[in-house]
Amino acid sequence: MSTEQSTPPLTQPTFSKVSSLKPMSTGHNLILKVVSTKVVIEKNKDKKEMISEAVVGDETGTIILTVKNEQNDVVQPGNTIILRNGIIKVFNGFMRLYVNIWGNIKLSPTTGDFVVNTSNDLSAVEYELKRT
């Protein structure tokens, strides 16, 4: 007698837009174009210990994405990337997009058919900690 366990079907990810991002939120799936990158910390070139900040965006706005180590190979100006399970943190009062160990960044198989809206920069808006 064989027992056959049925696995539930996988659900398709829902992609959101940059303009819908809010401080201290998690679980964001985004399709983004990389506008520019800047190396912030470079410790060891041989081991690729590097932290960069990239301006990324879609047709609704831009935000700064902080990337580490091998993520720098994918996040290059002009590339269209797929970011899964991104998190928003507030750094020095400004929003930043991160990918932790449960998320990933991959090169999109197709180029984005949108123009990045650089006039709506979510990382330029300063947030203040509200004490209750």
From TrEMBL:
Pfam families referenced in this protein's UniProt entry, alphabetically: OB_Ssb-like
CDD domains: SoSSB_OBF (cd04491)
Domain of life: Eukaryota
Domain Single-stranded DNA binding protein Ssb-like OB fold: 21-106
Entry-linked PANTHER family: OS05G0244600 PROTEIN
Protein name: Single-stranded DNA binding protein Ssb-like OB fold domain-containing protein
Natural source organism: Dictyostelium firmibasis
Highest classification ranks of the organism: Eukaryota, Amoebozoa, Evosea, Eumycetozoa, Dictyostelia
